[in-house]
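Dear colleague,

Following up on yesterday's call, I've attached the two folding results inline so they're easy to grep. Please treat them as preliminary; we haven't cross-checked anything against experimental data yet. The first protein's sequence and structure tokens come first.
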Amino acid sequence: MLRNIVAVIVGVLVGMSVNMGLIILGGNLIPVPEGFDPMNALNWELSNFIFPFLAHALGALAGSLVASLIAVSYQLPIALSIGIFFLIGGVAMVFLLPAPVWFICTDLIVAYIPMGYLGYKLVTKRA
């Protein structure tokens, strides 16, 4: 039981690290236009959405994959709990950061729960 709890904690920390790393990397790789407002995604160019989506999806994937590797039982619920944790953060961002509806829907539907499941499947295929 203790190892499963550690799996969730480590999974969340790994996912958050991957998420933040990709956000920072994206800010360095994709130049922002003049007068760019990072807190209003309604005015972003399409290229400015690439790294936030990748950060959300790969953060949830990495966290669920690591959690599934560490867990000794209940790997699927643990992996999905990581996806749900990040989904809650994604929903919170919807209220904090105005964004186009297409991005909100894509992000919330594709980047969290499916990536949690994929992280679990990648571990179980290996085993």
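Below is the second protein, in the same order (sequence, then structure):
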Amino acid sequence: MSNKALIHSSQAPEAIGPYSQAIKANQTVYFSGQIPLDPNSMVLVEGDITIQSRRVFENLKAVAEQAGGSLAQMVKITIYLTDLSSFAEVNAVMAEYFQQPYPARACVGVASLPKGAAIEIDGIMVL
């Protein structure tokens, strides 16, 4: 018997490749990267990095809730940005979704992301 379970939320975008939105192993949930896709249309949201960041956090929140948790239980996130000058705006949005103690975090500048997104975030949550 496997201790690995698929986590799938209809309130978050469908996977755009051969991967799961998240996988739960024991009490740990591993999130695949979320980009600012609208879960209904599967189209990138229009707008600046603030709007795109909110969509990504809403997607992560939906998957966390489907797993039986919340963003408050995230222990690690990695943010990928195509423009690191957006760092302050993303921090401001992150502060809307998290309270201390904040999850551990890395922020990485990348050349490009799927579908031309400006941001992608993945993470780990412990229930």
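For the second protein, one point worth flagging: The helical segments are 49-66, 87-97.

Best wishes,
A.L.
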